[in-house]
Amino acid sequence: MAQEREPLLQNSGAGNAAAAKGSTALLPSLGRSVLKFLMWAVFLTWAAGIFLYPTKPAQAAFREWAAVSKQSIFGITGTVFLAFSAPILIVAALAYVYIFAFPRDHVEKKKLRSLSFRLWTFSVLVDGPFGVVSAVEFIGIVLFIIYVVFSMTYYVVESVSLVSKSHLPPTISSELILATVGARFGSVGLFCMTFLFLPVSRGSVLLRLIDIPFEHATRYHVWLGHLTMALFTLHGLCYVITWFLEGRLIEEIIQWKEIGVANLAGVISLVAGLLMWATSLHPVRKRFFELFFYTHQLYVVFIVFLALHVGDFVFSFAAGAVFLFMLDRFLRFWQSRAKVDIVSAACRPCGTVELVFSKPATLRYSALSFIFVQVRELSFLQWHPFSVSSSPMDGRYHMSILIKVLGTWTDKLKSIITDVEEKTRSASDQSQTGRITASIEGPYGHESPYHLMYENLILVAGGIGISPFLAILSDIIHRIEQGMPCAPKNVLVLWSVKKSIELSLLSAVDAQNISSSISDKLHLDIQAFVTQESDPPLEDGIVEGDQKIPGIFLKNGAAMSGLVGTGDNFWAAMYFAASTLGSVLAYALVQVYYVKRFNVYAWWQLGLLLLLCMAAGVALPGGLVVLLWHLSERRKMQDERWDAQAGAGKAGAEEEQTTNGAAGADAASAASVAASAASVAALRTTRYGCRPKFQAEFMAFAERAGGAAADVGVLVCGPPGLQASVARECRSQNLRRGGGKSGAVFHFNSHSFDL
Q1: I need a labelling partner for 291 at 20 to 30 A (CA). Which of 501, 590, 722, 728 fits?
Q2: Coil/strand/helix, residue 340
Q3: What is the DSSP code (8-state) at residue 548?
Q4: SS3 label, residue 22
Q5: Alpha-carbon dihedral of residues 111, 113, 115, 120, nearest 10 degrees?
Q6: DSSP labels for 122-190?
Q7: What is the Cα–Cα distance from 135 to 491, expressed in whole angstroms?
Q8: Measured CA distances, 744 to 111, 118, 173, 734 (Å)
Q9: How many CA atoms lie less than 13 Å away from 632 in the CB half-sphere?
Q10: Can you tell me the distance from the alpha carbon of 224 to that of 137, in angstroms, rounded to the nearest whole number?
């Protein structure tokens, strides 16, 4: 408006500048909208095609399309792939373009504009087999149930109608209907398997685009795994019963056809799937984790023999999702080969192990990230996920985790660290001490720091579940210190522990001191509940301090590798493009120079060739891009090392020029700041022999935060019972508000405690 009051001579130039600025801003907005529209259009068309595939109009349209395109070099396999696998790859390609063109658009989340419910954070189901389920997740579950029921109902009605028209004997009709229904179970299961592999690709661009962290995606993988294996099991049972009634059970099971499905390959694939399914059930997984982990490596057998079982064109229905999983798995393999330097390894008196890893400055992560850790002295195959306990603001070159000693793996890790500490203290040459050879996969997690979008924040933790919240607290404090955008103004921490000795974990917060300037902008209240002690111990005043044993440094080779799907957007996009084009080219060459020349027609051979071409595209052209990516990361790390050394030398020279008077003034200033600052532990109020009463705590916090106008984000990290209790209270508070009473809106967010 100020420009309208300026002279006309200046107004013309200003108007042109404003118009130019407006047109410049319009282009990115238009491009963003076009990309979003294309992605939604392709995805919805693909999903609609899958849903309507059983219907006669869809079948007729597909047959017409297949008749036109089957003469191409790719044949019927290319037709199926283009219809059911290519769309998800097109969406992935557009997602890479979107993320590369607008790198911050998918990361930054805006503050909530109005006081209202959100489908992602409103809990619909709290108790039950699915755990805590949000409204969006509930809609997804309902849609899958509708799809399965609709498809199978349509198939059964159609099968019965066709068989009844053929006037066959009742026994033969029943067997034919059973076999047909079994085939349809397999068809529906194959489509569900397409969605099964999408959430398990940890660094997938699709998960990054819609900001679903891998720990939430793991839940969807579990749900889809139950559904897929139930359908495949029914598929197998229908055929087994049919063959038994026909008296040809053994003969059919061991049959390996050249034209048609290979039954024995299907049996092997189903057995591998059943073993993975049985050992992934929660009671088995929780008690026998190693059995679950090793058995789950049978996914290779499951996929390979599924391709041998159904052939190339049937496997093409799900090939796109499998290809995205192969991309992610190959990149994880590259990243996990690096041996990572351990900046510090220490054992805390409360039984918690702290590991601090070296990382490149270019490797970004959020305060709610996870990493997978392998210690080769314990196992070459086991990878365990842990929450990151450090904030990205704590330092550019390190990342830390806290590990509670609960099982065999963690107990052995603590023993190794203890032994190394003893050897380090006693040995004159530290290079001769024991080693911990660690490798890292990740980080994975939320693309956007959604804890920064709420002005009012409640963090509910149980035991070691405080670990990710330490990163959040440090992140918020550092942002306020540095004047960066930070929405949280009121933060309440409700932390339940069994023993008071666990309270010393608060010393792991990097930003230990809160100055008066920060306390004016941030109201932090930490409520600790010690459930198994009725009175404070005699040494209660001691647990405030850092009781961590001095850490040891272990040189293994390098910092964490940046070869991760959540890393450099340009190289990740090039890796995707090279692998996709390489796979298509490999399949075209195989078709021209092998399949057609030597008249290869066996379904199982064609299925194997398709799978090998996909693997070749990922390993060869994709591997070349990954190699170039790796070399680029190494060069960047060397440049950063030189810059760091130069900066250290310059800082040292300036420090030498400082006078003693200035040093005295700095010391006095530091003492003044320390006197006016409060430690994080000092803000803690401890209650013994009780648990938090969520209703009272939530209502009191909402009243302090603004009453009926308060928008409160609730983050919980703890066992399933704690998550259910918090979700139930959030839902109760929101429903009470929806019933005509005014009140705050509580947005429930969970951070997985047991992956």
Answers
A1: 722
A2: strand
A3: P
A4: helix
A5: -60
A6: -EEE-SSTT-SEEHHHHHHHHHHHHHHHHHHHHHHHHHHHHHHHTT--HHHHHHHHHHHHHHHHHHHHH
A7: 26
A8: 16, 13, 62, 7
A9: 14
A10: 12
Residue 472, helix vs strand vs coil: helix
392 neighbors 353 (Cβ within 8 angstroms) = no
- Give residue 366's region: left, alpha or beta (phi > 0; psi -120 to 50): beta
pTM of the model: 0.86
Q: Where are the alpha helices (DSSP H) in 53-121?
A: 56-69, 75-84, 86-101
Please give, one letter per residue, the 3-state secondary structure of 227-240: HHHHHHHHHHHHHH
Per-residue model confidence as pLDDT tens digits over 67-108:
877 778 888 899 999 999 999 999 999 999 998 888 765 444
Q: Would you place residue 243 in the very low, low, confident or very high pLDDT band (cuts 50, 70, 90)?
A: very high
How far is residue 80's CA from residue 533's CA, in Å, rounded to a whole number?
A: 64
Q: How far is 228 from 484, CA to CA, in rounded Å? A: 46
The residues facing 370 across adjacent strands are: 387, 444
Phi, psi of 514 (to 5 degrees): -110, 110
Question: d(Cα 623, Cα 706) in Å, to the nearest integer?
Answer: 55
What value, to the nearest 5°, has the Cα angle with vertex 334 and ends 210 and 281?
Answer: 60
| DSSP single-letter state for residue 218 | H
246-260, 420-434, 682-696, 706-720: least confidently modelled range: 420-434
Distances (CA, A) of 36 to 33, 44, 397, 558, 606: 5, 12, 35, 39, 36
Angle at 610 (CA atoms; ends 607, 613), nearest 5 degrees = 150
Q: Quick one: tokens of 715?
A: 């983050």
Which neighbouring-strand residues pair with 457? Answer: 491, 713
Residues 6+ apart with CB under 8 A from 353: 345, 346, 347, 402, 403, 404, 405, 410, 413, 414, 417
Show the tokens assigned to 440: 């890292």
The Cα–Cα gap between 86 and 89 comes to: 5
**Could you give the CA distance from residue 24 to residue 11 in angstroms, rounded to a whole number?**
19
131 φ/ψ sector (left φ>0, alpha ψ -120 to 50, else beta): left
